[in-house]
Give the backbone structure.
Amino acid sequence: MLDVCLLGTGGMMPLPYRYLTSLMLRYNGVQLLVDCGEATQIAMKEAKWSAKPIDVMCITHYHADHISGLPGMLLTMGNADRTEPLTMIGPKGLERVVNSLRVIAPELPFPIKFIELNENIEQLSLAGIDITAFRLQHKVTCYGYKFEIKRGGRFDPQRAKEQEIPLPLWHRLQKGETIEDPAQPGKIYTPDMVLGPARRGLKLVYATDTRPVPVIAEQAQDADLFICEGMYGDPEKVAKAKENKHMMLTEAAQLAKQAQPRRFWLTHYSPSLNHPEEYEKDVRKIFPEAVLPKDGRSITLSFDEE
Amino acid sequence: MLDVCLLGTGGMMPLPYRYLTSLMLRYNGVQLLVDCGEATQIAMKEAKWSAKPIDVMCITHYHADHISGLPGMLLTMGNADRTEPLTMIGPKGLERVVNSLRVIAPELPFPIKFIELNENIEQLSLAGIDITAFRLQHKVTCYGYKFEIKRGGRFDPQRAKEQEIPLPLWHRLQKGETIEDPAQPGKIYTPDMVLGPARRGLKLVYATDTRPVPVIAEQAQDADLFICEGMYGDPEKVAKAKENKHMMLTEAAQLAKQAQPRRFWLTHYSPSLNHPEEYEKDVRKIFPEAVLPKDGRSITLSFDEE
């Protein structure tokens, strides 16, 4: 189960009725935050999530609306007596940017581990979550993130019995380990001896800020949830979207049409876009399942029953 | 007339129901902000004040809850196409701290002029407002601020006539200028020839974060409005107040009792202080006019009629 909360849906500046775009994920006791603009810690409290156990923080890019809440968030995490390390992932320059912001948060009771992204596509695995960072097209270096929970094949006890695999080893084979039989040195058991084909896991893709580049639809292919920026609604703003390297809501919907995710949420609305829902009809003409959420939209994604 | 709005009343971290402590002032078209914690720009929008014309920003000290909102505020001011310079006042290190935070707000369409405070008491005059910065007692260097609008004596047209001062010069004398008569070189008119004694002006004193030191009551003497931190209410928190260099609500009230301001507002409540109003009775036993405001409390201070 992957708990998801889109803490805010705004771009550029926080507003009284709309926090900056930021995403919280929780899987198996591990908590991830994607982006941390000004007031994200307030949005997190409103959503009843705690800052203390943020284990991983992914930053898309270093425009202020995506990282200006960092010093305050770090202090709040520290005030909660956190001592476990925090892993931060972001484009090249991460450590320099974070340390510069920490001029007002110099002392923290926990270490920060920095992972800086350099390639167009990078893959990481943290606490059972496979993370793919993929380069977007924005005014500065910016990455989208794909989060995947892989799911192995179904364990078949009948096959295990037939192959006379000792019962105490079943659990480890089920977890994917390759094991030598302790009673019969040289005898090796592999997971494929007892597992069926890998089953569909969970996939969430998050892309902001960017123009609609093909990599987004590739990464979001068949995702359980695809969250994508849509800065402007009014068709007259196309030139502005291109100039500022953002997307129209309809451009994002076209990406969804190509990717065919199970669920599709828009976010990162311009402060000038007072009522994104007015464009729902246009967006759903392109991708009928599109949702234009408000702050705090949440969902729990579960594995398909099999 | 001095417009005053206490944008937030919280300390340490912003909460869904309480913004960080910050003060807006407006006098004669000039706008001042004192402190700029995370989400202050949201609080300002809720109070219907505009960020574009912030002319002067005074920072008390460099703990994050008093300056973490600065990069976002600067960008919002820039996005409003501001080009007029911003004057920033704060303890020594101001330029270094601000430039470090500006790693995420490097390009602004307006210049910033820095005024760094070094002495225990410093006086400035900006746009008709006399500002006195006075050193407080906190864990780091921290200043309180006194804002004064001085008011000259009443103009006496009868005396001006008796002294045969030409009518076209009256207005400049009234403004406080010393003038040579253009028709009679060597003949000098001074304001005291036509003005009565200086009248009571306006005085606002703002003190946070600090222990209750005597300078606060000295500066706040007879103020029109004295705004003072009061971090804790529960008498059991006295040791914590001393350790963290903050004040009990009752300690702040004792300062008010000494200073005898016309109005007294408390602020900078601890996140643990859910209902400051529960301590109103205790505080008013010491200073009956005390107010424990909520975010957005505002008032317009006017000169006494004379």
Notes: Chain A touches chain B at residues 12-16, 37-39, 41-42, 45-46, 62-65, 67-69, 71-72, 75-76, 79, 96-97, 100-101, 103-105 (CB under 8 Å). Residues 153-196 of chain A form one domain. The mean pLDDT of chain A is 96. Residues 249-259 of chain A form the longest helix (11 residues).
